[in-house]
Design brief:
With 213 residues, the protein is α+β, with helices and mostly antiparallel strands. 21% of the residues lie in helices and 26% in strands. It has two domains: 3-60, N-terminal domain of TfIIb, CATH 2.20.25; 70-212, SH3 type barrels (Roll). The chain has helices at residues 75-82, 145-159, 188-194, 198-212; strands at 3-5, 10-12, 30-32, 36-38, 41-48, 54-60, 86-88, 91-93, 98-101, 112-119, 134-138, 173-175, 180-182. The strands form four sheets. The chain has a five-stranded antiparallel beta sheet. Strands 3, 4, 5 and 6 form a four-stranded antiparallel beta sheet that branches. A hairpin with a 2-residue loop joins strand 7 (86-88) and strand 8. The radius of gyration is 32 Å and the shape is elongated. It starts with a strand and ends with a helix.
């Protein structure tokens, strides 16, 4: 039985004596007004179109977690949540990611490749004198003919003689993560485009950098 409060002229129905979204007097569906918040309660004013009763429905507010925009947290903290091992120009980087070397990497500027391993600075696997993490990248991709010629020319300038493309592919080049852009998730058509020429790849790299700025 509902409690009658004479002074307030109210009937108080407990959760056991009533049902959400139903009139506690006649059990008809309710018409709700705008909700109000009071401390840890949400109050829903209502009216019943069947019996004419008017009242308020109460519900408790309880903590149910957070949703955080991932891009707004510090980049170094993103590593904890992504399983990545190091940071490149545009964020976390992990084994398996597709990357683009930058113009700062003199050997193969703006060349797409795949990360095969990451040796953390100070770890037993870090076998170079680099003062950064060592990122191993496989650059033996399915490049267009124009880009293959450009790669051959780069190595000809480095070593003083020209070798066939098949002999100059780098399947385990160690790159400073600060010279890499993560392009994981790039559309297939766009990837084919940047693999056609260095000019296309440089254009795409600048797009990524401009977006960061």
């Amino acid at each position: 039985m509902a409690e009658y409060k004479e002074k307030e002229q109210e009937l108080i129905f407990s959760p056991e004596e009533s049902e959400a979204e139903r009139c506690p007097v006649c059990a008809a569906n309710l018409d709700y007004g705008c909700s109000e918040t009071h401390d840890n309660l949400i109050v829903y004013p209502w009216s019943c179109g069947k019996c004419g009763a008017e009242g308020k429905e109460y519900g408790k507010i309880s903590f149910d977690g957070h949703n955080v925009d991932f891009t707004t947290i510090p980049v170094d903290m993103q590593l904890v949540y992504t399983g990545a091992q190091t940071l490149c120009i545009n964020g976390p980087l992990k084994v398996g990611d597709l990357v683009l070397s930058t113009v700062d990497d003199g050997a193969l500027p703006c060349l797409p490749g795949r990360v095969t391993a990451i040796d953390m600075l100070g770890s037993k696997d870090h076998g170079t004198d680099n003062e950064t993490d060592d990122v191993h990248v496989d650059f033996t991709g399915d490049y267009g003919e124009r880009r293959k010629r450009e790669i051959v020319e780069v190595y000809a300038d480095l070593y003083g003689y020209e070798r066939p493309y098949e002999e100059v592919g780098e399947n385990d080049l160690i790159i400073d993560p600060a010279c890499l852009i993560n392009i994981t998730g790039i559309e297939d058509e766009k990837l084919r485009w940047i693999m056609e020429s260095e000019q296309n790849a440089i254009s795409y790299a600048y797009q990524v950098v401009r977006a960061l700025i």
